[in-house]
Each structure stands twice: as C-alpha cells, then as structure tokens.
Amino acid sequence: MLGLTPPVLSVPPVLSRRLQALFTYIPYGRVLADIGTDHAYLPIYAYLQGRIPAALACDINPGPLEKAAQHIHRYGLGAYIQTRLGNGLAPLLPGEAQCVVIAGMGGMLMVDILAQSLAVLASLERIVLQPQHDVPAVRRALHGHGFCITDEEMLQEGPRYYNILCAEKGAEPPYSDAEYAFGRPLIQRKCPVLHAYSQETLHRLQTKFAATEAPALGEKIADLLQLLAVYPEEK
User: How far apart are CA 162 and CA 27, in angstroms?
Assistant: First the structure.
C-alpha cells in the first residue's frame, strides 16, 4: 500500500570478493569515508558488521549517490551513514574520517585525488586503495605523501586482476623499481595471484615482442623474468 514505510533490512548486502577484500582493511571503531561509493554497499556492510560507528558515502555523480541514499534508507542507517556529493576527498573536512576507501577508478585519477586534498589526507590514519590500473604510480604517490604501504593484496575475479593497497602514516625502507612495479608485500610473500598475473603478462609481452622487437617490451619482459625467478619452480 502507498504511504507505508518499507521494513528496515537487517541482513547485510552480499559483497563481491573485491569489496570483501576492501572490507578486511577497514579498521575497527573508525569513521569511514567511501569515495566513489556507488550503491554504498561497503559502508552499509561495515556498519552492520560492527566494524565502524559511522560513515560518509561520497560520489561525484548524483545518480549513484541517490541510489546509495536509497539503500541506506532501506537499512534504516540514515543516522549513521551520510551521503555527500563531490569530487574525491573534497566533500570531507579534515578529521571527519579516519579511514578512506577509494576503489574502482584509474590509478592516475587516485593520484590526482590525493594531491588535491592535502589537509584531509594529512588527517587520515589509513587509506585503502583499489586502482584499476597504473598501480606503480599509486604506490609512488603514497610514499610521496608520507604514507607507508602496510599491506597489499591481489585477487582475481573472472579475467580481471585487482590490487588492494593499505597505507598508513609513516616511512619505510625505499622501494626498488621492481617493488614499485609489482608491490613489496606481494613479492615478499610470493603471492600466487601475482605469479599467475606475471605469467599471463609475460606470455602476452613475448608474443608482442616477437612481432615488434620493441626495446621497451624487452625491458618489461626482463623485469617479469626477474620477478618470476623468486617463485619456486613447478614440478
């Protein structure tokens, strides 16, 4: 019937493997800002799991933000999760959130977002990033802003590979070019997903190199062979 308030949902939304991996890096008891929130599934899930006391769901596009507001309303969480329209970290004031998640956009766009809101960036305890590409540039930008990469995960969903970076304020020993290219935590623990990604990429580059013999491709192939050398040989 018209005019009836829909029931408040209590069962958390089902997250994709990518969003579930992002969730694992959200710290307990901290206010979350989800940048590019889309449907606000991540902050809703994090609140219902008791991980966060409140969240700011931000998006640059009014359409997705309206969908986010509808989902928040359906769960009865309007008092705990605010929606804000704006670009990157611009909707935030310094200190409003202690953890920021930025996912599902290009790496160079993330680099720009971090550079455009330095006061907000300086107030954060943790940044969780999932760039779609240009991951080495994101690693370098985090270090340039005084963050250390405390952990990194790589997962595969269908044909696509995703890197998730967790960073906190602080310094760490300088990265090598290979660590910027592939991720120090992933290399150190011999991440099997990185291994699979490197093998696929190597095969693709070798095929291109056979046709073009471009020097730049040869350098990338050499880097991949060096990386793959740290993995034990398959028997």
Answer: 21
- 173, amino acid identity: P
Range of the domain at 82: 17-172
Looking at residue 191, its pLDDT comes to: 94
Same domain, yes or no, for 158 and 199? no
The C-alpha atoms of residue 40 and residue 45 are separated, in whole angstroms, by: 9
Report CA 43 to chain centroid distance, whole Å: 14
Q: With a cut of 70, say whether residue 234 has pLDDT above it.
A: no
Specify the number of domains making up the chain: 2
Task: Return the number of other C-beta atoms located less than 10 Å from residue 235's C-beta.
Answer: 3
Are the CB atoms for 159 and 131 separated by under 8 Å?
Answer: no
User: Reduced to 3 states, what is the DSSP secondary structure of residue 151?
Assistant: strand
CA distance 115 to 15: 30
User: Are 49 and 22 contacting, i.e. CB atoms less than 8 angstroms apart?
Assistant: no
Question: pLDDT tens digit string along 129-174?
Answer: 999 999 999 999 999 999 999 999 999 988 899 999 999 999 999 9
> The tokens 């660590």 sit on which residue?
179
State yes or no: pLDDT of 46 exceeds 50. yes
